Amino acid sequence: MVKFLKLYEKIGIFILIVLASIFLAIVSPNFRNLDTILGIIMQGSYGAIIAFGMTYAITSGGLDLSVEAVMGLTSVIIAMLIPTMGFVGAILIAITASCFVGLINGLLITKMDVNPFITTLAMQAILRGASLLITGGRQIVISQKEFMSIGATELFHIPTPIVYMVVLFIIFYIILNMTTFGRHVAATGSNEQAAKMSGLNVSLIKIIVYILVAFSASIVGVIRTSQTLIGIPTMAPGFTLNVLTIAILGGTSLAGGKGNLIGTLFAGIFISMIYYGLNLLYVQIFYQMLAVGITLLFALFIDGLRNRYLNVARIKGIRV
Amino acid sequence: MMNNNNIFIELKNIRKIFPGVVALENVDFDVRYGEVHALVGENGAGKSTLIKILGGAYQLDGGEIIIEGKPVTIGSTSMAQHLKIAVIYQEFNLVPDLSVAENIFIGREPKIGKSFINWRKINNDAAEILKKLEIDINPRKFISDLSVAEKQMVEIAKSLSMDARLIVMDEPTATLTEKEVVKLFSIIKELKAKGVSIIYISHRLDEAFELADRITVLRDGRKIETKKISETNQNEIVSLMVGKIVKDYFVGKKEEINEKEIVMEVKNYNIADSIYDLNFKLYKGEILGFAGVLGSGIHHLLRSIYGVSQKTSGEVYFEGKKVEINSPSEAINLGIGFVTEDRKGEGLLNDMSVIQNLSIIIIKTLTFFKGMFIRQKDEFAVFDNMAKELNIKYANINQRIIYLSGGNQQKVIIGRTLVSECKVLILLEPTRGIDVGAKAEIHKIMIELANKGISIIMASSELPELVNLTDRCIVLYKGKFAAEFNRENMNEEELVAAEIGKLSYAVN
Ligand SMILES: Nc1ncnc2c1ncn2[C@@H]1O[C@H](COP(=O)(O)OP(=O)(O)OP(=O)(O)O)[C@@H](O)[C@H]1O
Ligand SMILES: [Mg+2]
Fold first, then answer.
1. How far apart are CA B63 and CA B59, in angstroms?
2. ipTM, 2 decimals?
């Protein structure tokens, strides 16, 4: 069992991807051409990018459930500001506002000592409400076609969202694995009290983490808005669950302290493959939700097993 | 079937493998009725692993366990309980969010009807057991509010409440002060008289020699020898443990300090319910000891100086300047280092590797590009150096810290603070759970540091350590100053008397 889990920890997500690829290659001749594959990766990039941020939150011992509302907020702000400011200014303000939301999340969680789950869930409701209020509940059509250059074009034949994903992956990966800040995030999630005793400013670390999550969600908000040219206050309902699924499936332990961004990247693509496969099979949208839910449970199950078996401290902690 | 030489439990050919480590190989071990059998060995020798097998926490990879002549399997902790084996683990096994009473009776709560816990009975029964142990803890208190020593006593109470036939104690006295140790010993002797078998693990050989009938030495996962206590001596056991003849582990005294330059001064210090009007000075290059039994408030005092918890009033002067230390990071910036007594709760970064655990305090300095990127080469150099100095045993640097043995974890936690080059070092029970060799090594390092001008505050429940190592020793009793000793008049008898409030004695 332990061996299996260790192996899974290392290569589990790749095996899932290989299995999914074989399956898709069999059922769909289209799958064998590059454009389809790029399409799948692009669809996966949205979840993956936010899941990079989520990986930080989980690694620090927390969680952020407000990401889809941050996307909506971003979308609405851009649509409102674009006519007066042009898209560059609108994007910058939307991202800044989102980071501010992350800051508030972080402050509530650290200074008021509220549980991250509850805090960010409340934030989700607040942001959704606020976004709907701003627009009067309507969607706003954007007429500046130039804005499409952000998320609906290609760079060297690669769709820009994939480019963003790769760039962000590299940055997030380097920060988490090679910098002191990344080390501090892991220490905080591993044992907060020990991190404090070692002189880390745990509050500041967590605040930055929540800003990073909001930032990554905002980026995806920008991309999606640029593709549709509509400001949608209720953008991507239920997407938070996808993001969580991706992060946990990728091997980042809910117990904190251990973040696996490579896993997150590939889990994002895997989830997209599932969607694609289900679409091919003409499965109703409800089943897709079902599939994500089941995948999340599976990921949680593995995570639980791993914590149980691989963490000696926990073995000893089992109630006698 | 009753065995002729009254063997209660017998372990044969025990083998246990972890990835990359053979923790136990070919180990034979037995315990008789009413016998105290001491189990000793260096850090990482396999002691804890052996008793975790008895407790059902680990499964055997080979060998067999025989109880009263019948082979048994101990597949889980509840099976161990069923076989009337109680294990007091080195790392506690208590649920922090439950009360003391609930923890003592966990899984065996007295019920009203089928499902309701009989609170009155559980609290009364717990109070009774605690009283028998002469422990002054309210059974309704939460575990998370207890000190480490109190937790240890609750663990002991828990195992006593089980009517166990074999009680295994993994370094039970490591966290206790003199007074509780005495109590524990008298309980062990009572149990023994009742025919209960006891396995006793400790790094303090004098304890083993006081309590045990036989002693078994493990080294690198193998059994070296089992001897009758009456037929051996401490020197022989130490030689068996380390595998060579050792002369003496006493490290000698540090140099006396000549000029008395004050580094830190604490004035009129008060902490709610634990410290009252305390004053003391710390000189440059001095090792200052603090002694006291449970409830002395020493740990509260030192934690508060480090900024972990709040004082109610009082002043701290550091290098002549008045300072307010509100968090450990402020203390670290001033140059104060701290080693916690609560390794599991606030020391170990469980999910992280051995090397990352060692470098966490100074990682900021092992960097390039304005402190942002970690220079792995530097990190490794620092680790390698400390690992050699403290003789830390690990499989590889990326091994997670929780897979090290208890003593090796402790070495990493101490090393973490030692590498941070501070001016004042506060050590709570620094050599807890550390084997003789490494302990001498740590004492030697402390002396070297002090000779270099670093001031050390050490709280220890081991009196010989205090007497041999410190320049001065302050004794607190119930949060108040009780006595102060210097090199000339320091002795164990009077220290003990002062610790229990029977002596007040001061020199300047
Ligand atoms: N869960 C584990 N995974 C991997 N290695 C382990 C695990 N538990 C123990 N070990 C290794 O097994 C060896 C024996 O460890 P054990 O904890 O039994 O030592 P010990 O004699 O109790 O030492 P100490 O005096 O330091 O407590 C050590 O090398 C340790 O690193
Ligand atoms: Mg041990």
1. 11
2. 0.84
